[in-house]
Each structure stands twice: as C-alpha cells, then as structure tokens.
Queue: 2 jobs
Job 1
Amino acid sequence: MSTHPMSQPLSHPALSVADPELAALVGAEEQLQADTLRLIPSENYVSAAVLEATGTVLQNKYSEGYAGRRYYEGQQNIDLVETLAVERAKAVFGVEHANVQPYSGSPANLAAYLAFAEPGDTVLGMALPMGGHLTHGWGVSATGRWFRGVQYGVRPGSALIDFDEVRDLARKERPKIIFCGGTAVPRTIDFAAFGEIAREVGAVLVADIAHIAGLVAGGAHPSPVPHADVISTTTHKTLRGPRGAMLMSRASHAKAVDKAVFPGLQGGPHNHTTAAIAVALREAAAPSFRDYAHAVVANAKALAEALLARGYDLVSGGTDNHLVLIDLTSKDVPGKVAAKALDRAGIVVNYNTVPFDPRKPFDPSGIRIGTPSLTSRGLGTDRMPLVAEWIDRSVQAAAKGDEDALAVIRGEVAELLAGYPAPGLATD
Ligand code: DSN
C-alpha cells in the first residue's frame, strides 16, 4: 500500500530493541492510521507535540492531591505542569474552575455524581439508544444501577431532543442532576433550554461536551458556560488532546468537584496526560484551531449533503456539528455489515443504533461517522463528495458481497490519503 513520505511510521528505537513484537504492533497501527480514512467521530490525530508529552518522564511521578497541596514530595515541576493545564483550560473555555485530573470521560462523569448526588438519587439523562452516553444513567452502567436513572429521548421524525419531555420528566421526577450532551447527537445542544429546566427544578446541570469540546473551544458550537453548573469533557476527541478528561465549573462548585475527583474517586493523577492536556489546550488557544473547528463542521455538513444526494437517510436530516448518523434501513444493509465492509475498504466507522431502532445494539440499523480526523489531515469540503461516493460504493459492495470492489476502494483511499499526512505520524 502506498504511503506518502510524510506519513512514514515513527521509529521507536528503544521499544524495537526491548520488545520487537510490541514495536511491530505499534508500527502496524501507525501504518493503519496513515492509510485509512478514520471517520469515527470520537477519534482524532493528536499533534506530535501532544504525543511527545504523553511519553515523558512525568509518568514516573505520584502526585496525589492538587498543586501546593500534595501527599508526596518532589512536586516542583508537576505542580507547575498541572497549574499550566488548569489555567489554560480556564482561559480556553472561559470557566472559573478546572480540574484536569479525571482519567477519562466515565470517571469524570462519575465524579459529578459523587459531588452532587447520593446513591439512589434520581438523575435525568439522554437514553443511550437516543444518542446519550452510558454514564448518563443508563441501566447497564454503574450510574444506572447506583442511581435512579430517568431517561429522555428525541422526537420521532425530527429526531430532535423533546424538551417538553425533558421538562415534564424534570418536574415530575425532581432529579438531583440533569445531564445533557451525548455520543450520537448530530445537532446543536440547546444548553440554555437545559439550564432553564435545571434551574426550575433545582437540579445541577452537567453538560457533557466530550464530543464537541473542540468545537466549543474553537467557537463552532455554542458554549455551555453561561448555563451549566458543571462541564464534563474528554480531551481526546474534537479537542485533539491525549486520552483524558476535565471537569470545569463555577467557582462555587470547585471544592465539591475537586473533592469528588480526589480523594473521592481517584488516586494519583496521570501527570504525563496532564502535560499533554496542557499542550493540547495551548494548541486550542491558537487562531488556527478556530479554523480547524469550523472546518470540521463545514466538512460534516458537506459530507451530509453528499450522502443525502445519494439517497441516504440521516438521523435528524443532517448535522450541525462533527457527526453524521446514517440510518441504513432503506439500503437493506445492517449497520454492522456496512461497518465491517467499510473497514475492509479502508474507511473506519462504528455501527450504531439510531433512535427507535428496531434492531439490537450489537447489530443495529446505523453507522456513525464524523469529520474530526480527516479535517486534522487537511481534507476540505471539496473532498467530501468523494468520501460520500466511497461510503456509497462500499455499502453497495457490502449488499452484494463484492470483496473486489472493497479492495479497489481501499487502494483509492490510501492513494488519496498519501497526499494528506496525518499529524503525529509525520516524520517532520
Ligand atoms: N466511546 C465514546 C464515543 O465513541 O462516542 C464515548 O464515550
């Protein structure tokens, strides 16, 4: 498979000697990420600088506590690293308080429960099959077992959040916490509407912006800051940072949030991750990141238009953000069959339920795609018709079991991508 010189896999000299087997796997993954069109909307390519920060000696250090208040000595540098990350988060998102220690999105959300609810309390969140997240009170999650999860959804037809339902449920159930945000929500989240409902019923509003954090930072999605009490986010999706998370809040909630993360839920923070979050936030503060965020949305809209033109049914009829949810029912190809065929064609997506899906989550009707990664590689709206064409040809090939057609597409994908080197994979 051809690869552009700028996308040659990085070398890992020490790893190659110490553990050639593992080094080979890392190299293979680098090659895969270089050669495939990665459309999973929660994934991205981090910069070489973010990648370097995650591989530093900061990972050798234990730092339970917070800057200036640690349970271990030797924090001369770590305190400064964490303070940099915190201050940058506050500046980028315009928040009064930031905690950069949550290990990832699920622990961050669990810390919000710990801070503002007691086991058995009622929480209101979007149902997983409607686009919500497991940790918003869904039954199989600890959050749905240890708390009383009440779930809202979207309207049949429009697939937009049903705010009458949200308000009615909030008034009836008086939840301690209301979660908004999700993992398969292609439309702008109306934080003001959620904020009004939360205030009316005295609930804490947690805005989970994991998917759209980069869009918020870059001004391509409204900010939840004036409306939400707490903002939860991962740092590795549109924000283009390392695998990690943050909780942000008003100053009045700072103590509760910090106490919940440590010592409530976690031990020592992952300092190498904190450092990489700081680097990513520095990048997110640059003017070019605004261009990136807007380009992600422009690409998603162009891709949605091109798919609609090819007769695809899109949940909610399109997108306002980075994500497009395709309902393949009318194409007579189950989501999982399509996702696996696309994978063989070098286009990486995930199968996904669509609202009111008659099929099961492990074999649903849809696929979920997004544009953060391809935008990081520099693909623009002019390329989206071709991406839609590849998706369409792959779905048709899946329906016919035409493996040769998938192999042809895989070659075309790699050839195009060779001209768009991926950040972090370049040898520059
Ligand atoms: N797993 C993430 C996603 O893909 O959306 C959410 O946690």
Job 2
Amino acid sequence: MANSVNIPQFPQAFWRDSVSLPDFPKLNESIRTEVAIVGGGITGITAAYLLTRQGMKVTLIDASDLLNGVTGHTTAKITAQHGIIYDELIQHFGKDKASLYYQACMDAKQLIEDTIQTHQIDCDHRQEDAYIFTNSDSYVSQLETEKKAYEQLDIPSELTSSVPLDIPVKSGLRMDNQAQFHPLKYLKVLVDEAVKNGLDIYEQTTAVDIEYNKHPTIVTREEHRINCNYVIQASHYPFYDGEGFYPTRMYPERSYIVAVKTSETYPGGMYINAESPTRSVRSTNMNGEDLWLISGENHKTGQGKSTMKHYEALQQYAEKQFGISEFVYRWSAQDLTTMDKVPYIGPVTKNEDNVFVATGYRKWGMTNGTIAAKIISDRILDEDNPYAELYVPSRFQADPDVRKFTSMNADVAKHMIRGKLEYTNDNVKDLSADDATVTRVNGKRTGVYKDQDHQLYAVDTTCKHLGCEVNWNSGDRTWDCPCHGSRYSYTGEVIEGPAKEPLNKVELE
Ligand code: FES
C-alpha cells in the first residue's frame, strides 16, 4: 500500500483486510434444520456458536459474505458506555431497568472474554477505559447529570477535567474497565468452532420471506426453502416484518471511519465526544504499530451532503488534532436506532415466538449483538435470561422521542414525494469518470454511474422497498435510500435491506 496522507480512493475496512475468512457455498437446494440464522455478523455467528455447543442443528445464511456487514465495519469497542444514555434510561424505564441495561452490556463483555479465554483467541483484546468527553460548555452539565446516573447504578467511573488523549477537553466522564478487540479475528474462531460442532453456512444466499405451516420456512431469492423450528433474523434490518412495523420504529444512520498513522504514541483509552458532529477515537494494532481509528459524522442514510465530505471532515480533524503521517484506510457503516434507543431483541411479534429479530443496536453492536445472541439462544434452549423482557420488541414505552419519530415518518413522506419530482439536468455525456448523476430516461428518474473505464451503469432509482427515490453516495459508490436506509451497488444489487430485490436496470440509448 502506498504511503500517503491523502484519502484512499476506495473504501476498505481494516478488519476485513487483515483477516482471511473461509468461503462457503451458495444454497442450491431446499433443506431442513433446527435453527436457521439469517445474517453472518456478530449476532448470527455468536448465536450459532452458542447453539451448536449445546448440540443444536444450525444453518446460517448470508446474503453476501460472512462478516461483510456492520460487524466488518464497526469501531469494535466492547463497552457499556453507549454515549450519554443512563440518565435518559433512568427517566424512561426507571432505575432497575437502566441497571439491567448496564449489566447486560457487562455480561456481554464477560461472555466475549470467557470465549477468548476458552479458545485462547489472539484477537488484540485489551482492557481500556472508555471516555465521553466534551469541549462545549453546554455539555459539561449533561456529563455531570450522567455521572449522577452512573452513581445511582454503581457504575465505576470518574468525572475528569482532562483525558489521556491530547485534545481540548472541558470535561470527561470515564467508565472504568471496558475493552476493545479485533472483531473478525475473534469471530473467525467462533465460526471455526461452530462449524466443528456441525454448523452449515451458505453465503450469497438471500432470504426474502417466511412461510408458515407447522414450522416456519425461509424462502430464498432462488426459491429454495429452509424448513426449521426457529428463525433468527440477525440481518441488521429484519427481512421479515411479521407486521411488526419495524420500518416505522427505527431510523438508519451512516457514519464514517478513517484509519491513520500519526507520529504520536497512542496513550490508551477509547473516546467519544458528547456534542455533534460525533468524534470517536480508539487505536488498534497494525503490524506492531498504532493504527488510529477516528470516526463520526453520522447522518441519516441517503440524505445530506456528498458523503466524501464526511471523510474529509474526519481527515481534517485527525490532521489538526494528531497529525497524519499515513492515511491507511477509510470505510463507513450503517446503524439503526429504535424509538427508545434500546435494541429490539426477541420474537418478531407477540404471536410469532419462533421467529426472532435482533436489531437497532445504535452503533454499539459488539455488546448489543452479543446480548442478542445470548437472549435468543437462551430462549431457544429454554433457559431463563434476566434481560429478555427489557429488549422485547413488542414493548411500548411512552417516550418523548415518539415525537421525533412522528417527524421521522413525515420525513419519509417528504422524501417519497420530493424524490420523485427532483432530478438534476446533468447531461450523461458530460459525466466524469467515477461519478454519477440522476437524470430522466423515457420519463423515468434514472441514476447513472460512469466507472473508471467510462462504462455507464443506469438504474431506475425507485427503491424496491416502499418506492422512495435513492440518492448517490459518492464515498461508497452506492445508491442509498433516504426513507429506511436500503442501499444498492451502482449496478443495482442490494447491499443493505430492508429492500430485497435489486433496482431495475435501465437501457441507455
Ligand atoms: Fe424503504 Fe427505500 S428503504 S423505501
């Protein structure tokens, strides 16, 4: 890799580039299994590991390659410090449930550590303190309030006036004894162990529906069927909604990571600021050197400025605060947030207790994904889990954020209508290489991308989920939907649901 301080031309996640994962076949027949898991990220793989250890027959399918979704693109902090959340949880759920939330995260951390110990996994796991910091007067009192919530919940912590990282800080809230690791080095061993215990894995196999008879049956895009006793939807956005109305109960956001080397030695710790735009910092080990992971710049999927601008903002921040000696990787991730900020983990609806969802991790997938795997596998194994009720998707909490969700849905309606009317008049002939535009072809709103070799790819921009219009994401070269976050490659293939079908291709004359 060239040694450069410039932004890499193509996105690539360090985690995926530093581990080689085995390949698995595509499903080409109908099969029967006990538990079918859809989605090969931390939730699906951990659940497969836990269930196969207990002798269950498990099959896992993924629409793409294993660990190529959010888990392959995370910051991989293993922490109960999920931003400023505990005061809010106490207000909305009460002290006992807020305490359960913290305990669930710490149990997930313990489960990860026990698994590392059991299999002697070399995954750069390290205990680190986690900090929320602020350089804004208006957030200093919020951190004080959050500290009081920590005290009520007996969370080991300290309010500080500085942090180990050399950045301007007015106040910092430290949560002691959190951790970080290389998620793919860890999960690769779980895959190996689960396969030894009989797990079957199929990649490039997309689930599109569930049929019911006596048992649930997953239907794949190629119309093969997986008949089973239980389905675990660990696919980020549930592909099967069961009238649980998930698109109206969650919103998607994208965020960005740059991985750089600096001339400074990393002082330890994991950091996130309280204010916007988000700035999160941790380091990892790359061939014995510190690789600094700087992330943030969240925004609603498919909306806002050119996505390359978000990478540039992180680059400027990294350069100003730490000085970049080498810009090694850049990548982005998508996360879903629920109405009350607590993930939805459990039966997809009250009446369907053999089809599970695990979603809405709000960027904290290492702990939330592990909690989900444990709650759902305990349920299948008929074991009690003290956290199941807190996360149950059918809960209803009267929350001030309901108003925010009403406006989110208004936002969806706005995009549904406005997207159909707006398009740029760019002439496709004038399009530069590696750029895209939206135009009209035979009256239809059409997205056109020109690749490096001047080959054109044209797609109908109507999203296959509920018909909003997708927008170009220049940082990742994808078409992203502003309504519920579906994402498509420039050829129109689905990268991220809830859409299940590719965009229609358009013939250019
Ligand atoms: Fe719902 Fe596109 S993701 S309309």
